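Quick one: structure tokens for this chain, please?
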Amino acid sequence: MTAAAQSTPPERPGTRPAHLLGTRSRLVVASAFMLFLELALIRWTGSNIVHLSYFTNFVLLGSFLGIGLGFLRVGRTDRPPYYSPVTLAVLVLVVLVFPVTVDRRTEGVLYWTSLSTGGPPPWLILPVVFAAAAVVLMGPAELVGRCFPELERLEAYRYDLIGSLTGIGLFTALSFLGAPPVAWGAVAALAYAVLLWPRSLRGRLALAVPSLLVVGALGVETLTAGALWSPYYKVTHSRFAHQGVPVMDIQVNGIPHQQAIPAAKRLEWERQYALPYERAATRRLDDVLVVGAGSGTDVAIALAEGARRVDAVEIDPRLRELGEAHHPDRPYDDPRVTVHITDGRAFLERTGAKYDLILFALPDSLTLVSGASSLRLESYLFTREAIEAARGRLKPGGAFSMYNYYRESWLVDRLASTVQAAFGHRPCVDVVSTTGQQAVITAGLTAADQSCGGRWAGAAAGTPPPPEDDLPFLYLKERTVPQIYLVTLALILAVSLLAVRALAGPYGRMRPYADLFLLGVAFLLLETKSVTGFALLFGTTWVVNAIVFAGVLVAVLAAVEVTRRLRTPSLPVMYGVLLAGLALAWLVPNSWLLGLPVPLRAVAAVVVAFLPIFAANVVFAKRFADSADATTAFGANLLGAMAGGCLEYLALVVGYRGLLVVAALLYLGAFALLPRGARAA
């Protein structure tokens, strides 16, 4: 095969104009824009629509559908996809005019899931977001797909991957800088201009108006909301006086999150904050660890209780900055306090320090979700293995404590039984208030190192077992996929089938690429296992996630380059290597990897996680290189990835390790569907 010309054909009446950029440059820019836009949509819609906390990969599924449709539309029309910026403008305006936030009109710390929300109901806004995400992403995907026929198969895929890496890098850099959404909108407007800029004045107006609307609307949001954009949240805050006491109220993504209050008043108003110090038998507080330090109130209480040194662990840098600037007690200015901006579980696994008291101080967003396949920031902090790691960081006579508003009595019992399993004896359990199940769970290193006010009766019948690293779903009471997710996913798949038929033509054109569809399904599950595995081994921070996603693309790019430049084994052999890599990943336990020093752990984790990813993409590259219709083959693979996003919810039942078994079965199915000619070659 030879590479085609590097520029598009001359302009013809009724078709898109010739482009100033060569094919390779245009492909890189369009691919970078496609991934950047996907990440920005996921982040921005989640910050303004509370319901997306229940459906964590909703926008991702819509994006996959749109990207797949964009590739399948190639060849069916030459019209520029102006529908993409127009739809993006409509989506931005709808979300900003009708945001879904918590209606908080009462005092105290409450659960946003028990409060009313303002804005459209979920059955209305979620379909709008899903459909809009699909249409928006379909535009840049169509532009990427139009470049594929002009290049040799693997060369086009190579530049697509380079562009994707560029998009991840750009979004990561903006996240690091704390850039607000108006910066994301400006990038989108510039990309639309570069990729779609028409020659006629009418066409330029049609493109410029929606782009300016997006930038203007996001600019107004940035100026009026007074928000700080952390790598995780849209953080807003207000300062006021309550009973003459200065209070800073903090919300993240429209959800009441925490309050910065003087330590003395916090202890006076809410008894739970004093109980860890009363239940710990030790009276020495030379070293205290606070996980979930937030804006600093728990750190200020530790100092008030006599702590000589405090390690304050907080995953979100913006929350720490707010506390540093506005907390009435100024705890972060105290020389006794050392701040660590990292994931709490990762800190426990890495540190060699020992503590008299370890506190898990409300290290979550106070959400009660019946099931969610994507990891929450705190998912790996409440497993049995995490509590065992905390126990291993206690000095003789030390104690561990956690407190929160758990809302459900079974959740208190589940966490207490987790602590019991880790420490080997019953902890102290204080239910301070049955309203919201405000509770404190404390355990000494030994039973003699704790001083309980009363004996915990033990977990009630029907309490789910302690969560484990492979099933870190604390809020999932039963090991099943909740019905609301099954219904939602069924509707998503039904709508997707209709959309593919309506916009991309008959399904028969994809029939020769059924194996590529299954490769897409399996690879999404494999990628999910890799991302969650690295989050456990190195933390759920945004830096780790960005590195892992980029690493996956680098592994894919390496597989493409090896396939392009070297003589690789036949497809049956590569399928064998792939299945062997999956078996290795299944056999190596996370506990063994966590026991390694961090540098060695990184090397071992990369080998275990990326060997099957590399082999899977050699398989895909070899098959894709010989496909008769590049855009249809690629579109089928991307639609498979969307189906894989739905199957990801199986982790709620089989665990993340079980996803490797499901992926292996799918790869076997892909091999069975492999055309005879490809198998023989």
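The longest helix spans residues 598-625.
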